[in-house]
Request: fold
Amino acid sequence: MNVAKRLADVSVLDPEGRSVRLGDLWRELTVVLAFIRHFG
Amino acid sequence: MRDALPEIRRRGAELIIVGNGQPQHATDFRDTEHVESPLYVDPELRAYAAAGLKRGLRSSLSPGVILRGLRAFREGKRQGATMGDPWQQGGVFIIRPGNRVEFSYISEEAGDHPSVEAIISALDKVGRRKSGASRR
Reply:
């Protein structure tokens, strides 16, 4: 399974605490998905 | 990476940033850093794990990391209090609809990240592929 398929069903939280399914973010457009180490 | 935002959007793509921490950290980060692209948090590191991103003491404290840190310190850069798991490393992926992975960069250690040029170049390749341009 490629990394996008593995990530597609994982959910993250937006700054307001709402759950978002990662796969929905690239359903219709190309994304540059950058995981950063930390916010500090 | 954020400097690349106009170039990313001009190519019809979006920059999505995922951080480790709580939603409040993302709100603070967005406000202090004036982040204009979508920002998310993965407090339990499930996405980081699914993406195969690296964790561990060794990747956070290798000689390269320490030397880069010393250089940055001499140049006056200071690390504020980190919010989130300090042992978690990052990475960058370019993903197209249909779960197509066009670019993958998994950081080995702190300070290790792809160049903006590499990202833009990969997006340009995606664009050429989508338009059916023939290989030269």
Summary: The beta strands of chain A are 11-13, 19-21, 30-35. Chain A is about 25% helix and 30% strand. Chain A touches chain B at residues 2-8, 10, 12-17, 20, 22-23, 25-40 (CB under 8 Å).
